Amino acid sequence: MFSVDTYQHRRERLKKQVGSGIILLLGNIENPINFEHNTYPFRQDSTFLYYFGIKAPKLAAIIDLDENKEIIFGYELSIDDIVWTGKQETLKEKAMKSGINDSRPFDTLASYLQQALQQNRFVHYLPAYQSANKILISQLLQIKIDAIQPSTTLIQAVVAQRSIKEEQEIVQIEEAIRVSTEMHLLAMRMTKPGIKEYEITNAIQHLAANQGCPFAYPPIVTIHGEILHNQANHNLLKSGNLVLNDSGVETAMGYAGDLTRTFPVDRKFTTKQRELYDVVLKAFTDARDMLRPGITFKEVHLQAATSLVNGLKEVGLMQGNTEEAVKNHAHTMFFQCGLGHMMGLDVHDMEDLGEQYVGYTQAEPKDTTTFGLKSLRLGKALEPGFVLTIEPGIYIIPDLIDMWRAEKKNEDFINYEKLEEYRHFGGIRIEDDFLITENNFRLLGPELIKTADEIENYRTNHV
């Protein structure tokens, strides 16, 4: 945990932003895998962590703005619990660590809220992503689940606060990136023909676990990099394959790192692989160099798209006017997703609160229909303190080729005949994490090798 002052200061800022009423913040529960006592690893809700720092399950908190009260609700362990888990901190001890002196049994939460509702006081709460918490909100507030309406005021206040990272948060994020960097170097060292994808996944997980860090998200370690969030990892690595490794850890306090590198199973890229790798790298550097306060991330995304089109024209996979190609979204044959996202206590930071609130503004709302742009999680103007990823890619998806070609879609810009030669190419992604500073940006964590020459030299010297 951070200091008591940290959590008290964060809550004071939240109170000023919200103004009046009652703020209800719910922690997470332990979710069962296949029966009640066999659970998935517990992960506390990130907003609950941000304001209280307590990682235990089955907690809730009230910040009563009208009566100036802060209360933690939870359960004390019974002797039956202690038999199985050993002696743990009491509820009061947990609450005191976040600067809260008032702790109460969880069963009294409903009556507290019902009394407030009878007085026509407003209860602010956030969107629930766990089914258990949706049911709990329904029960606590005596409303139907489909009538649940999270507080826009609270969402906007939390997003505004969590978006600007404190220095101590940056330290945590850089630690996550440091461990993630070690994982990526290990993956590059051990990759060779004849091993399975899961052998790499298991090795990097072991490295992370030895440093007290779980994965921040399910790792993507695959020879099928064209599948954006590929979870299958049973394939045998063969000469001529590319490996895409998108993996990162989170620290014990919950802060994430998120890196991607793509490299050959052999020591060297093939000519085709290197050509497309350099196209992606150019898009990466062009986008990175635009980062600064005030620019919208949508502009940065479109610059990456422009760079990709120019590079793909040189290779012969695209043609025609670059500006018109981007305007017609022809680049989404190769780059179907967004350029990046916010990062912090969540690898996709605050995504549970809604992309419209986290990545966009009311004046410039998210495009939810256009292929490519609808997957851009961040589009608004950047501010000092934002932490985000830059991750352009080229993904050659056979089904998409077939569909567009049958529709003769963007045939003025896409060389479908040439593209057939790359039909089973796979995918390439390059990703790093950045802090927006007062004037431009700073790469977070140690710099992980990135150019084709650096990767080939590393593979040659370590495999």
TrEMBL record:
It holds the Pfam family Peptidase_M24. It is an enzyme of class 3 (hydrolase). SMART domains: AMP_N (SM01011). CDD domains: Prolidase. It catalyses: Release of any N-terminal amino acid, including proline, that is linked to proline, even from a dipeptide or tripeptide. Coiled coil: none annotated. Its EC number is 3.4.11.9. Residues 2-134 form the Aminopeptidase P N-terminal domain. Its cofactor is Mn(2+). One of its GO terms (biological process) is proteolysis. Keywords: Aminopeptidase, Hydrolase, Manganese, Metal-binding, Protease. The keyword Cytoplasm does not apply. Belongs to the peptidase M24B family. This is Xaa-Pro aminopeptidase. It comes from Sphingobacterium wenxiniae. The lineage of its organism: Bacteria, Pseudomonadati, Bacteroidota, Sphingobacteriia, Sphingobacteriales.
